[in-house]
TrEMBL record:
Its EC number is 2.6.1.-. This is Aminotransferase. Residues 37-387 form the Aminotransferase class I/classII large domain. It comes from Companilactobacillus nodensis DSM 19682 = JCM 14932 = NBRC 107160. Its cofactor is pyridoxal 5'-phosphate.
Length: 396
């Protein structure tokens, strides 16, 4: 095996080198090595891809659809994205000029931020939130401004946003990242709450990157897209990973004004050339003929959510009822004397339950832990028994 030559040891991108690996993945991989552990770490649906969606991918392969698609994605899929967004959320995008099909929502986030950020630009990131955003901002030379939302029950208020923009200087702030339904909190913004945010931003020289990947997984209220309220400044990110359990197909998309899409499309083309054809045809089938596919999944997730939240609060972990996604986010009682990393590690090694430390989701997540209920009810029930026994052992 080759050993790195000493002459190139220090030839490294100084922006990337200091970055750590994803803490979500780090702890998931670390805890997976514990024998007999129940893993409630990763946010990956435990359902299979709908059969009609799989058949669309198979047909693409059988039809020898093996050539490059258009760089921004097949026109069929872009039309399906446009139709889906209009039908479900009342927002309109021209498939020709305002949609890019990406390799998952991850690439959508990267190319969107790359089209905005210059070195030294600031991006507001309410935390706790998905950990991906912070390193991407740093890689691009930007400065993430973390805003702790825990005092407001995991919500970014219009008042707090205005204060942060004024403090940082509105000419320095280029974007706000809003992830809702939220990972890890499950928080869902109401239309009135979104209007608060839109009112603050509408006259400011900044974008909103609205990551709505969990839009189909809400409980008790319908998702409202920020693009409906602020279409000229919103970069809408979504995909098929959560709604149709298609994480491995890696299909996401960006929908935004055409002038923005020009620059984001350049970065997309230079990075990946084009998405995979079978995956695109599967995604098109999901959006055109699978609008109802998430309904049964959502019903099962809600049953799991109700059970796990009741159990967590009964055991002594203060947990709000999440209105979306498939996570619980719980506070660790001070009396246990453990920070979130210590708690998660000890729970994995001694209690045989894998959870994600809250600090993996930014400063606002410290002293909390995330549980994914994208797992069987049988595993969740056993995990709650183990968590209860583990907690009692700490208290005695």
């Amino acid at each position: 095996m080759p050993k790195l030559d000493s002459s190139v040891k220090n030839v490294v991108n100084e922006t990337i080198a200091p970055l750590g690996i994803s803490q979500i993945r780090f702890f998931a991989q670390k805890f997976a090595k514990v024998p007999g552990i129940i893993k409630l770490t990763l946010g990956e649906p435990d359902f299979n891809v709908p059969e009609h969606v799989k058949q669309a991918a198979i047909k693409s392969i059988e039809d020898n659809d093996s050539h490059y698609s258009e760089q921004r994605g097949t026109m069929g899929l872009r039309k399906a994205v446009s139709g889906y967004l209009k039908q479900q959320y009342g927002v309109e995008y021209d498939p020709e000029n305002e949609v890019i099909v990406t390799i998952g929502a991850t690439e959508a986030v990267f190319v969107s931020l790359a089209a905005i950020i210059n070195p030294g630009d600031k991006v507001i990131v309410p935390t706790p939130t998905f950990a991906l955003y912070l390193p991407i901002i740093k890689v691009l030379g930007g400065i993430p401004i973390q805003v702790d939302t825990t005092p407001d029950n995991f919500r970014l208020t219009g008042k707090k946003l205005a204060e942060v923009i004024e403090r940082e200087g509105e000419d320095n702030v280029k974007a706000l990242i809003l992830n809702f339904p939220g990972n890890p909190t499950g928080y869902v913004y109401s239309e009135d709450q979104l209007k608060e945010i839109a009112d603050v931003i509408k006259d400011k020289p900044m974008y909103v990157l609205s990551d709505e990947i969990y839009a189909e997984l809400t409980y008790g209220r319908k998702h409202v897209s920020l693009a409906k309220l602020l279409p000229g400044k919103t970069i809408l990110i979504n995909g098929l990973s959560k709604s149709h359990a298609m994480t491995g197909y890696r299909i996401g998309y960006v929908a935004a004004p055409a002038d923005f899409v020009v620059n984001a499309g350049k970065m997309h083309a230079y990075t990946v050339t084009a998405p995979s054809n079978p995956a695109q045809y599967a995604a098109q089938e999901a959006l055109e003929n699978g609008i109802d596919d998430p309904i049964e999944m959502r019903k099962i997730y809600q049953e799991r959510r109700d059970y796990i939240v009741e159990q967590l609060n009964d055991i002594g972990y203060n947990t709000q009822l999440p209105e979306g996604a498939f996570y619980t986010f719980s506070a660790i009682p001070e009396k246990l004397g453990l920070n979130d990393v210590e708690f998660a590690t000890k729970l994995a090694e001694e209690g045989k339950v894998g959870v994600t430390p809250g600090s993996a989701f930014g400063k606002g997540g410290e002293n909390h832990f995330r549980m994914s209920y994208a797992s069987s009810m049988e595993d969740i029930q056993e995990a709650m028994k183990r968590l209860r026994a583990f907690t009692e052992s700490l208290e005695n």
